[in-house]
Amino acid sequence: MAQLHFSDEILMAFADGELEELVAASVEQAMADDPAIARRVADFLRSRRLVRSAFPEETAADVPAALRAAVQARIDGFEPPAHQQEPATPPAKGRATFAGKPPLAMALAASVAGLAIATVSYLAGRQNPLPSQAAGPIALLEDPQVSRILSDSPSGREQDLPFGRVRVISTFRAADGTLCREFKLQASSGTSDAVACRNRGWRITFALAEATGPGAYVPSGGGDLMESYLQSAGAGEPLLDAAEIEALRKTEP
Amino acid sequence: MPAAIGQDLVALLPRLRRFALVLCRSPSLADDLVQGACERALANAGSFTPGTRFDAWAFRILRNHWIDHLRRSRTEGMSEDVTVQTHIVGDAGEEPILNKLLLAEVQQIIDAMPSEQREVLLLVCVEDLAYREAAEVLGVPIGTVMSRLARARKRLVEMTAAA
Predict the structure, then answer these.
(1) Any idea where the RNA polymerase sigma-70 region domain is (chain B) (predicted)?
(2) Would A238 disulfide with which of A16, A77, A142, A170, CB 3.0-4.6 Å?
C-alpha cells in the first residue's frame, strides 16, 4: 500500500488553510488513515491557539499618549487635517482564527478537532506517539550527502549513496525566486519523490514517499500530487543545461 | 497624491507597537521604532498598493526600520536593556481554554525563542498574515517562513505537552 509522508511544513500549512486543494485533500485522507498524522495536524492547530492566547491583546489604551501625539503630529504634517478622511482600507474586523481564509479551512479545522479527540485514546496505548516521524525514507532526504548531490549533480544523472540512489529530476525557480530541485531517492526503506529548495543549504519543502512493503509498489497518484504541489509553489519552467549549471554555481543571494 | 493613510496608521498603532515589542523587547525603544516607522510610512504613502493589506505594508516598514536601527547600533552598542514583559492578558473572549499558568508558560517559551521565530509566530498566528504576506514583511522566501514557523510551533507543543 502506497504511503504518503508529509513534512511538518505541509501539515502546518494544512492546519493553517494554506494548502492547495489537491494536496489538502490528500492530507485529509492521510489523517483519516493515520491517527499520528491527525495528531500532528491537531498539534499545529493547538499551537496557533496557544500563540494567539499568549500575546497580549492590543488595545488603543496600551499606546502611550506621547507616542500617539507624536504620530498624530507627523500625520498632520503630511496630510491636511480633515475630519472625514476615507480610510485607505476597510478596517479589519472580527479576528476569527481563520480570518481571511476560505470557509473550507474552518470546516477542516472542525473535522480535525473531532479527529484529534478520537485520536487521543488510540495514541494512549502506543509506545511511539508519532510513528510516521520515525526514520524512514523521508529522514534520509535531509542527509548531507543528498544535499551535496543537489548542489552538484545535473538533472537526469543518478548517483549512488551508501543508503540509496539519488536522481535529480529537474531544477526550477519557485515563485519567490528560490532555486529548487525535484529529485527521487530510492533507498531500502522506500522510494521518495521530493522537492528541496536552496535557502542556506537545501531544505526539503515537499516529499512523497512509498514505504517498501512486502508486495510490489503501488502507484499512489503521487505524480499528480507532486504536480499539484509544484503548481501551488509557483514553480517556474525547468532550468536546462547551461542555465541549470549557472543557477547551481551561483552562490545564494 | 497618494491616499491619506493617517487614520489607518492611528488605528494600527497598538498592533505596530506589539510587533515592535516582539522585535526589540523594550517598551521605550518600541515606541521610538513605531514613531519612526510611522514617519517613513507617511513619507512613502505612495508605495502602498490599495487593495493589499495595509497592516502587512506597515509591518514591513516597521521591520525595515528596526533592521536599520540594528545596523547602526551594532557599532554603537545597544544602550537599551531588555525589559521583561509583565502584562499577561489572555485572549479571553475567543479561547477560554488556557489557564493562567499555561499562559505564562507559553509566554516564557515564546520569549526564549530566537527573534526570527517570535516575529513569524506573531505575524502568522496572531496577525493572521498568510505565509506569502509574512514572507514579504520579513523579506525571506516563503519556505523560510514555513520552516521557522513549523519549528517554533513544534517546539511550543513539545514543551507544553509535558505539563
Answers:
(1) 11-74
(2) A170
